[in-house]
Structure formats: C-alpha cells, structure tokens
Amino acid sequence: MVYYIADGVRPIPAGDWLYNLSVPAAGTLVCFMLNDVNGTGGNHGTQCASAVAAGGVINGNAPPYKPAYTGPGSGMVQGPARGAEIISIGNYYSGGYYPDYYLFCALGYDGQPGTGDEPNIVSMSFGDGRTDSDGWNFESRLIDWVGRALAPDISWVISSGNGAPGYMTLTSPNPPRAVNVGASTQYGSTLTFDSIVGLDQINAGDVQSWSGTGPAANGYVGVNVLANGAWGTGDVPLNESRNGWTAWNSWGGTSRSCPEAAGVLALVYQAFRETHQRWPTAEEAKRILMNSAVDQHYDVFRQGAGRVHAGRAVNLAAGDAGVAVHPPEWWAGDYRGTSYDAYARLVAPGQVVTTSFTLTNHGDQPLVLDISDAQPSEIGRTEFVFHTIKTQNEDKVTSKPDYLHLLQGPGADNIPPDTDLMTLEAVFPFADFDLNYVPHATETIRPPYENGFRLLAYDWTTTGQRQAALTTPSDW
User: Fold this and answer.
1) Per-residue pLDDT reduced to its tens digit, 326-343
2) Which residue blocks in 185-339 are alpha helix, DSSP H?
3) pTM of the model as a whole
4) How far apart are CA 274 and CA 25, in angstroms?
5) Comparing C-alpha atoms, which of 198, 265, 195, 212 is closest to residue 51?
6) Is the pLDDT of residue 191 over 90?
7) Do 275 and 76 touch, CB atoms closer than 8 A?
8) Average of per-residue pLDDT across 194-198
9) 421: closest CA among 206, 203, 181, 229?
10) Which domains are assigned to the chain?
11) Considering only Cβ atoms within 10 Å of each terminal Cβ, which end of the chain, N or C, has fewer?
C-alpha cells in the first residue's frame, strides 16, 4: 500500500513535528506500507488487523463443518468491527524508538491532541516477558502518562502475554490505565488442533493455560478481560499465500486476543457516540467492556472480569440494557494516605480498608441482585496413571491425541455436577522433563526442556469403524 507520495508541499506523515524533517521535493519519495512475511514479525501485523476488522470475504480451504458460504461476510475470517478503520504504524519487531510510537498514537499526524486524526483505540500485540517490574517500568508509566495528559479518550489495549500458567507472568508494558487482555479458548473452530465432526464439539471460553496472569509487580490485578486467543482464523499477506481465496490460517496467542477485544471496544465507541454524541473516555470504555464481560469462573488474576461479549457491550454502551458497577475493579490501599492511579498501594497487616461501589441498571425493568464474594474451592479430584511410548514412535499429529483417557461418559463419572472449573495437570519426574538434570543438583538444569505434555479436553465423538473399538473406559 502506498501511503505517501512527495508533492513538495505535504510532509512525511508525522515527520515534521516528530523528527523535524523537511518536506521532500515533488516526485523524490514514495513510501509503502507492506507486511513482508520474510521480515521480523512474519505475518503478525496482517493477522492482528484481521482480528479487528476482517470482513469474512475469503472462504478457500474451509473445513467441512463450517456453515455454508453465502458471500462476503460469511467467510473464514471475521472480525468484530468490520467497518473499523486501521492505522498501521510500522513493524514494532523491526526496531524503532517506542516512545515515538506512543506519541504518534496520542497526537496523530498533525502532532496535536484531540483534532480527530488520531486513533480511538491502540491495539498492542507485543510485550517483553523479561521485565519483572511490569506496571512499574518506564514504558508502562510512559503510556499511562501519555493517556492521562495528552489523550484521555484513547483506549490502550494490551496483550497479557503467553508466559503462564504461573502467576505474575504478565508482559510489559502493562499500565493500569490500559485494557489488559488474556486469551480464552476456542478449540475445534479450525482443523489445526482438532478433527471435529460438528460445531457442537467446539470447546470455548476457558482461560488458555499460557495466558499471562496477574498480579502485576505494583499489586494491580493485571488482567481485565479475555478474548479468543486459542485458537481462531486470521488473514495472511498475499505474498505468503499467493492465492487470495486461501489467504488465511489458524493462529493464536494473546497477540490474537488483544485485537479481538480491541474490535469489540470499537463497537463500544460507536454505540456510545451514537447515544451520547461524543466519544467515551478511556475510563468509560474500559468500564463498559469489563461490566459486559461473561464470568468464566476463574480467579480474577487469570480472567479479570471474564470473556468479552460484543452484544452485551454494545447494549451497555448505548444505555439500552445491562448492569454496570463503578468502579469495575478495586485496587485496595494507598501510599502514605493517597491512592495514586499508577503507583503502589499498601495495606498493613490487620488494617481494614473499605470502598464504595455504584450499581446502575440500564434496562427498563427493575432487578434484584445478589452480591457476594467468592473463592474457588476444590470439590473433587481424579488421579490416574498412564504409560507413554518412546517419543520418536508417537506420530506428532496435532489434530489428534497420542493418548486418550475418558473423564466423563459411559462407565466414567469423574466431574461433579456443580463444577464451575476443571483443571488438568500432568505430573512426571523432573529428570524426564530435563534430561540433563542430576537429582539434587540444580546447577545441572539446562534449557530447553526435552519432554513435555500438551493437555486438551475433548468433547469426543467416535465415528465409523472406531465406534466398536472405543466402548469402555479401558480402551481410551
């Protein structure tokens, strides 16, 4: 895409105020924006953009269980905000000076805040997992300051990272002002990881095990909402596929969940503006997104308020339906008597702290609400042992398992009826995990690890000749 042709009058976009560049002479410079899949970052940028605004146009290589293609809008890649406009600011992975990125996002092409040439929403599918001071570090504080001082109406949407399952595995930047997005699941929607036979086998809504988890280093909860990051479709550049009709693939990560949440937030901005004749502030938009999320029954460090829900978010933004709590989250404590929005808050042992919440019913019918705290507690546990064969004898096909165990079904009743959340864990010797390890000698640990397990919960269906063979739990 050509985004600039020198005419001797207009400057390079943002080059005048950001870098004090002179205006090139007419015909001396042409600037292109392209996604070179051979460069750093690969097809990442195109996939992220499609997670926001893909129009469902292409449908090549669609799986057999996909609903029939009826024309543009029903294709393989569909973003929540199909009419949204995208501003691409370059390849973050190729380097550059990140404060310039953030200043451009806040001030737009003319270098002036609030003139309308800046974005409403900034989607940031990147992060640094090596930074332990997430939330405290300079980059996080810079974004927070830019948002408060220069661009209070711009929402910053940020990936929580892919470094879990442990707690405090958020990537940086992670400012409290931003919407931090974790990854929920949608297994079975493509053929990459599963071989389902019908749409009813798609398992969705759980927190993906590697989805970055709070709290942040400054004590902030860290994750605000979830969106699909494991897994879904995404567009890829034409120079990768060479066939526009099949220019999509399956992908995931909080790099995917972040722009999907940003797309839902774009719908919030549109609905809010149509109702209130102004854009929402970043605080208002975040409040709407969190209040409309669907509780997935995980702890708040993993799920925040829950999975984003576009329909509920739009209704709440328009004031048509829904209940809103303000504030949508509470970061308890203060620092020497003052609660700073982007600084540490302390609570001494034995100290009692309180706050007030305001509930607003945006519907036209009265509601009776039950309000209480909640803490997950274990109500059942199932343990079993299985023996593996040599890794080189496993077929390594990601669309089918190497080992199966029936948890719930004919002859197996291991999931209590009141279960909200089920976790699966594989426990095996550390010496099998790292073949270099000598017991009791931590200095012998040498990454990377040699052996590991990928655990998936299936809504299993047997077909054809396999039906007779898989009839009892011992066969699974």
Assistant:
1) 999 998 999 999 988 888
2) 238-241, 254-276, 282-291, 300-303, 310-318
3) 0.91
4) 43
5) 265
6) no
7) no
8) 78
9) 206
10) 1-33 (no CATH), 43-326 (3.40.50.200)
11) N
